[in-house]
């Protein structure tokens, strides 16, 4: 993974330049309108300077966008991406090698591309769980295979492929987003 001067992360093996910045006519650090203020809300539109079929997703923040705060973290403590941290959000957080995974372990070829495992946070019960993904790869929680959803606790060790991650909750008994 490489970070461009505007802060975007992208796979330098797939793209020569940042696919998010490439072709955008605005100067670095400047906000670019995704669409003119008309009836385009809810429709897919191209950012200025980008072709509509360029295959790039452009975020649109409208009135219906929800509050999606960080609820916890996983940090790589062993493996190719040692020292990298990932933010967890409410709902399901997918672990895999693909760039679109919530926890993207792109440098570990032994991790399944998509959905090796899933970490979920349930806002109603204020709890975290780890579940097996839909891939053939196995995940381990504190050395035990994850065959069914298992509750996570602070500092639990999660293993996928050659990567070990430490789980650190933000939300729990002492704090929850209201």
Task: Describe the fold and architecture.
The chain has no helices and 13 strands. A hairpin with a 5-residue loop joins strand 1 (2-3) and strand 2 (9-10). The chain has 178 residues and is mostly beta strands. 0% of the residues lie in helices and 31% in strands. The strands form 3 sheets. Strands 4-3-13-12-9-10 form a 6-stranded antiparallel sheet, with no helix packed on it. Strands 6-5-7-8-11 form a 5-stranded mixed sheet, with no helix packed on it. The mean pLDDT is 83.
Instruction: Tell me the Rg in angstroms.
Output: 18 Å
Secondary structural class: mainly beta
Average pLDDT across residues? 83
Q: Tell me how many strands there are.
A: 13
Descriptive tags:
single chain; mainly beta; five-stranded mixed beta sheet
Short summary:
The chain is mainly beta and 178 residues long. Helix content is 0%, strand content 31%.
List the helices and strands and how they pair.
Elements: E1 2-3, E2 9-10, E3 70-78, E4 85-89, E5 91-96, E6 103-104, E7 117-122, E8 127-132, E9 139-141, E10 144-145, E11 150-151, E12 157-160, E13 163-169
């Amino acid at each position: 993974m490489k970070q461009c001067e505007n802060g975007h992360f992208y796979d330098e093996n797939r793209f020569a330049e940042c696919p998010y910045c490439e072709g955008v006519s605005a100067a670095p650090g400047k906000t670019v309108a995704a669409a003119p203020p008309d009836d385009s809300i809810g429709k897919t539109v191209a950012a200025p300077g980008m072709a509509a079929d360029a295959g790039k997703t452009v975020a649109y923040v409208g009135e219906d966008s929800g509050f999606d705060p960080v609820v916890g973290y996983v940090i790589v403590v062993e493996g190719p991406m040692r020292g990298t941290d990932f933010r967890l959000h409410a709902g399901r957080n997918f672990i895999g090698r693909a760039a679109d995974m919530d926890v993207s372990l792109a440098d570990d070829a032994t991790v399944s591309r998509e959905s090796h495992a899933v970490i979920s946070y349930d806002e109603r019960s204020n709890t975290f769980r780890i579940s097996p993904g839909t891939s053939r790869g196995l995940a381990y929680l504190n050395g035990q295979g994850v065959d069914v959803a298992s509750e996570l606790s602070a500092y639990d060790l999660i293993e996928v492929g050659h990567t070990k991650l430490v789980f650190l909750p933000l939300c729990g008994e002492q704090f929850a987003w209201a």
